[in-house]
Amino acid sequence: MTDAAAQPITRLVVGAAIVDDLTHPTVLLAARRTAPSALAGGWEFPGGKVEHDESLEAALHRELAEELDVTVELGAQVTGPVALDDATGWPLKPGFVMQVRFARITTGTMRLVDHDQVRWLTPAQLYDVPWLPADLPIVDAIRALLH
């Protein structure tokens, strides 16, 4: 396996660990992808690519509005193993790093656009869905933080 931290980062991605409460989370939202075909059916954290000259926070708000039609309050970062300029991230495919933030839905009724299902998972249910391989280490990190 290659050292993801040693590879140049060509693209930043943001993901939301959507929970019921930012200070005492008990459930985590998982979303099932519909595309591309290689990833369809895999479960992930909602989010997407950061656009040029866009902050990570702005990108996450935009992506969640586009993908789920919700507004969120952002919480703490889920600390990853890859150092970014002012944060840390999680390695995806070569050249891609994802920063994950906790989030709580404040307004909106979930409307699925890029996903065909969502599920709220308790700590005991976290591995009941087939997470995308790159998201599994993040799930492991979040598991310790759910009550």
TrEMBL record:
GO BP terms in the entry: DNA repair; DNA replication
MF GO annotations: 8-oxo-7,8-dihydrodeoxyguanosine triphosphate pyrophosphatase activity; 8-oxo-7,8-dihydroguanosine triphosphate pyrophosphatase activity; 8-oxo-dGDP phosphatase activity; 8-oxo-GDP phosphatase activity; metal ion binding
E.C. number(s) listed in UniProt: 3.6.1.55
A Pfam match: NUDIX
Keywords on record: DNA damage, DNA repair, DNA replication, Hydrolase, Magnesium, Metal-binding, Mutator protein
Top-rank EC class of the record's enzyme: hydrolase
All copies of domain Nudix hydrolase, residue ranges: 9-146
Cofactor(s) needed by this chain: Mg(2+)
Reaction catalyzed: 8-oxo-dGTP + H2O = 8-oxo-dGMP + diphosphate + H(+)
Annotated family: Belongs to the Nudix hydrolase family.
Protein known as: 8-oxo-dGTP diphosphatase
